[in-house]
């Protein structure tokens, strides 16, 4: 039974049988061809037997080795590398076909690779997978079909069956921002250099003046000591940002966050941005915390700066799911009031499509803004933007564009209305969410607002 389950025939085998059928039909009309066709059939049968013996040689377990090498966890929304290692132990050249049974969440049936292995040769096959949902992803078996140079029969080998890989929020994006922040190259991903308006009172050092420094920070005594016949070298006092400030990411998990964009939901974009921002806040010596809510407040992770805080944030965000109920901002306001006692930066990731939707929640936002610095982050409809950028050529397109302009105007009106009450806002496309959020955080830090 093991032999039968591992034995497959190739398309070349069936095409050869089709050729013999046609040859026998022709031999019926031309009898002189019959002996030749019969001899060819016998030779073909012998070749099939020899090929089967070569494929199923006496040491079947050592004939071929394969292994799938994948990360212990995948990063949501990113391209994750997967490597297939192949090693042939056959004494002849072997064409192989590799079919990897990837998780059903990807809905792909084209993960087929072909290669040719020389005797005792090993090869690597690399491909990438981009998950769009967090959770557990299960790989099936790694199927390797081995053939001889005749390629009439195939022998199937199965490796690495039933492996589970969890998909976490985008930690690859987090590491990218962390590396760029460490090397002062955040501008490469759209992070702007913020001119400092004022400064905190935490003195750091005295350093030489550089263009752009506030002239009010000149240290006259240090400048006098550095003055020499060659000229005057200005020295300025450098101040560091306020540290250990609480930064909370409030993540809305209601139905408004189920909207998809490029395979990911708005909740996934918010979670990826919250993870990156929390890491940047910890690098800036601030305290990072998370609060998730929908029709009720679900989970609260107090803002801390302990070594394991980032891992706690990652594990908390991994389990978040959107619901179908409307968000309850009243319970959020009460929870914030009783849980977060110190003035903090609150980044609220949500979405408002109309001014009426904002007006229903505005009293609760204003109440939170009294005690904390509130930053509301919501999303621009990119499909609507592409519709508005195209010229209207028909009457229907004119009506569609007019309706689109109304929705776009309401988004801008929401921004102005929030700013009237001193609430900071970010209106951004989903793909720019992380960069714009980090920019705003650094701007607020530079302005000394937190």
TrEMBL record:
<keyword id="KW-1133">Transmembrane helix</keyword>
<feature type="transmembrane region" description="Helical">
    <location>
        <begin position="36"/>
        <end position="56"/>
    </location>
</feature>
<protein>
    <submittedName>
        <fullName>DUF58 domain-containing protein</fullName>
    </submittedName>
</protein>
<feature type="transmembrane region" description="Helical">
    <location>
        <begin position="12"/>
        <end position="30"/>
    </location>
</feature>
<feature type="domain" description="DUF58">
    <location>
        <begin position="205"/>
        <end position="376"/>
    </location>
</feature>
<keyword id="KW-0472">Membrane</keyword>
<dbReference type="InterPro" id="IPR002881">
    <property type="entry name" value="DUF58"/>
</dbReference>
<dbReference type="Pfam" id="PF01882">
    <property type="entry name" value="DUF58"/>
</dbReference>
<keyword id="KW-0812">Transmembrane</keyword>
């Amino acid at each position: 039974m093991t032999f039968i389950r591992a034995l497959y025939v190739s398309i070349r085998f069936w095409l050869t049988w089709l050729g013999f059928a046609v040859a026998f039909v022709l031999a019926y009309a031309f009898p002189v061809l019959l002996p030749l066709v019969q001899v060819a059939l016998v030779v073909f049968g012998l070749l099939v037997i020899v090929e089967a013996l070569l494929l199923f040689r006496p040491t079947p377990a050592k004939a071929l080795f394969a292994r799938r090498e994948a990360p212990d966890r995948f990063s949501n929304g990113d391209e994750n590398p997967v490597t297939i290692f192949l090693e042939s132990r056959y004494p002849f050249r072997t064409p192989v076909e590799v079919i990897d049974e990837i998780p059903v969440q990807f809905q792909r049936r084209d993960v087929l690779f072909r290669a040719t292995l020389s005797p005792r040769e090993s090869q690597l096959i690399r491909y990438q997978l981009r998950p769009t949902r967090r959770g557990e992803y299960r790989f099936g078996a790694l199927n390797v079909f081995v053939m001889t140079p005749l390629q009439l029969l195939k022998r199937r080998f199965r490796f690495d069956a039933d492996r589970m890989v969890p998909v976490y929020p985008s930690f690859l994006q987090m590491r990218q921002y962390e590396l760029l922040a460490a090397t002062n190259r955040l501008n490469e991903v759209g992070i702007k250099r913020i001119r400092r308006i004022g400064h905190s009172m935490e003195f750091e050092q005295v350093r030489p003046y550089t263009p752009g420094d506030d002239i009010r920070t000149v240290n006259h005594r240090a400048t006098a000591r550095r003055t020499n016949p060659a000229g005057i070298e200005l020295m300025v006092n450098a101040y560091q940002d306020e540290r250990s400030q609480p930064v909370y990411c409030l993540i809305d998990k209601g139905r408004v966050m189920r909207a998809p964009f490029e395979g990911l939901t708005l909740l996934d974009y918010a979670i990826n941005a919250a993870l990156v921002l929390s890491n940047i806040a910890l690098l800036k010596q601030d305290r990072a915390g998370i609060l998730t809510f929908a029709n009720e407040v679900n989970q609260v992770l107090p803002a801390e700066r302990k070594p394991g805080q980032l891992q706690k944030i990652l594990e908390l965000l991994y389990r978040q799911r959107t619901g179908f109920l409307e968000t309850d901002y009243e319970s959020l306001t009460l929870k914030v009031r009783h849980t977060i006692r110190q003035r903090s930066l609150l980044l609220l990731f949500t979405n408002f499509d109309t001014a009426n939707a904002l007006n229903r929640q505005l009293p609760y936002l204003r109440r939170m803004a009294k005690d904390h610095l509130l930053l509301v982050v919501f999303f621009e409809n990119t499909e609507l933007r592409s519709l508005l950028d195209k010229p209207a050529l028909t009457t229907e397109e004119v009506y569609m564009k007019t309706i689109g302009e109304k929705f776009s105007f309401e988004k801008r009106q929401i921004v102005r209305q929030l700013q009237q009450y001193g609430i900071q806002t970010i209106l951004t496309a989903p793909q720019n969410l992380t960069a714009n959020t980090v920019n705003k955080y650094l701007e607020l830090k530079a302005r000394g607002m937190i």
